[in-house]
């Protein structure tokens, strides 16, 4: 644990909603010190408590990470008493993060007009599939659909196969990241205006924001970007190349780096060859250039090749799996993976907080809490006593 001040340590965030996109936003804010109070349905909690392929001891390995640095309270938001209690809690918060379908909060009497009347400085961060308005707003939206609509699914995979996906929940996490960015921007604006506002983060738009020049390529140049497997069109050499003991990635597409690579290959004349001398020429002749490089790399072992490339300032590396990350000295030196004690799993590894800040670094203070672990603490701060909690519990409200 660090003694440095927490960058967001003066903020209280109330997190509503379930699954991934909204809670990922809450995780990011909590990583940098915000107090994040997560509201969960009584009895069941967030379904993320059950998600994940591997579940030793019947427990999710995902939940301790996604819910790290958070406090869990239970509350039935579908009841009048639950809605009233939520309103009291939000009245003392800086940020509300929610990822229900548009209109849900309004039906519960917790719309922005009501919440801003109680708390004019409140930032209301809303994460949905399609945004708060537009013809698709009422639709259910999951990350996979946002990835498809935002364009990344179509261009992912090999050209002779249907569109593929990344093996992570990319759309949800992008939407959560943009939601966190928008929240911080809105908080900065509040310093000047004193007023809160709504942050509207849509899954498909978060994906669209990563699509580079895809739209003007079609509109202006008439070019439809397609799936290209392991390469980016017109960027070469930048690919995976064979060695005696496994593939190595080499990215030498900049002119000066390509010249150094050609020299290492014993083919310095290639750097001045009209087919390869410029970025555009290499892109146009990428396949034959890749064949030349692969012919050179195939006769070497990966470790020796990587040493040679690194010594000569040529970006190169391996495709890491989890076990490679855990064994890597650079990961260890930068503490990219940290360990906290977990009651069932013992020594629990997870990624650290990124990016690193020199003065107010983020920190993982706690792993994901048990359901309702902080009911007494959080509701006690609102003036509820043990009798109130017992009554609310027996009524199924918390």
Structure explained in plain terms:
With 398 residues, the protein is of the alpha/beta class. The protein has two domains: 12-210 and 354-394, Crotonobetainyl-coa:carnitine coa-transferase, domain 1 (Rossmann fold); 238-318, formyl-coa transferase, domain 3, CATH 3.30.1540. It is 37% helix and 13% strand. It contains 17 helices and eleven strands. The protein has helices at 21-31, 63-66, 80-91, 104-107, 112-118, 143-150, 170-193, 203-208, 214-219, 255-264, 279-284, 286-297, 302-311, 322-327, 329-333, 375-380, 386-394; strands spanning 12-15, 35-40, 70-74, 95-98, 123-128, 198-202, 238-241, 248-251, 316-317, 337-342, 346-351. It has a six-stranded parallel β-sheet. A three-stranded antiparallel β-sheet has the order 7-8-9, with helices on one face. A two-stranded antiparallel sheet has the order 10-11. Helix 1 packs across helix 7 and helix 6 packs across helix 7. The protein is elongated, with a radius of gyration of 25 Å. The model has no long low-confidence stretch (mean pLDDT 95).
């Amino acid at each position: 644990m660090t003694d440095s001040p927490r960058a967001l340590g003066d903020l209280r965030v109330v997190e509503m909603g379930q699954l991934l996109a909204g809670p990922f936003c809450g995780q990011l804010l909590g990583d940098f010190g915000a107090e994040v109070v997560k509201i969960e349905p009584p009895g069941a909690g967030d379904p993320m408590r059950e998600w994940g392929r591997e579940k030793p001891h019947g427990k999710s390995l995902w939940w301790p990470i996604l819910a790290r640095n958070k406090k869990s309270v239970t509350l039935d938001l579908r009841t009048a008493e639950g809605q009233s209690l939520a309103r009291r809690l939000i009245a003392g918060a800086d940020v509300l993060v929610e990822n229900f379908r548009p209109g849900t909060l309004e039906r519960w009497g917790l719309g922005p007009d009501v919440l801003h009347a109680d708390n004019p400085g409140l930032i209301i961060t809303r994460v949905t599939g399609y945004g708060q308005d537009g013809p698709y707003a009422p639709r259910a939206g999951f990350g996979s659909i946002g990835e498809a609509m935002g364009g990344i699914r179509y261009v992912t995979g090999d050209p002779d196969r249907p569109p593929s996906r990344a093996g992570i929940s990319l759309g949800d996490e992008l939407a959560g990241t943009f939601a966190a960015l928008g929240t911080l921007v809105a908080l900065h604006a509040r310093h000047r205006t004193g007023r809160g506002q709504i942050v509207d983060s849509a899954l498909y738009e978060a994906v669209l924001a990563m699509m580079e020049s895809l739209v003007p390529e079609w509109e202006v140049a008439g070019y439809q970007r397609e799936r290209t497997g392991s390469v980016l069109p017109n960027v070469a050499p930048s690919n995976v190349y064979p060695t005696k003991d496994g593939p190595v990635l080499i990215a030498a597409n900049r002119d000066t780096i390509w010249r150094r690579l050609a020299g290492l290959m014993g083919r310095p004349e290639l750097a001045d060859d009209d087919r390869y001398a410029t970025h555009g020429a290499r892109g146009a002749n990428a396949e034959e250039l890749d064949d030349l490089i692969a012919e050179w790399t195939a006769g070497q072992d990966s470790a020796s090749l990587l040493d040679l490339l690194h010594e000569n300032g040529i970006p190169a590396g391996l495709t890491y799996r989890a076990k490679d990350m855990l064994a890597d000295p650079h990961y260890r030196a930068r503490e990219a993976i940290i360990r906290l004690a977990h009651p069932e799993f013992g020594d629990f590894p997870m990624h650290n907080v990124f990016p690193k800040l020199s003065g107010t670094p983020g920190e993982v203070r706690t792993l994901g809490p048990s359901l309702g672990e902080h009911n007494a603490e959080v509701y006690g701060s609102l003036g509820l006593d043990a009798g109130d909690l017992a009554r609310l519990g027996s009524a199924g409200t918390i």
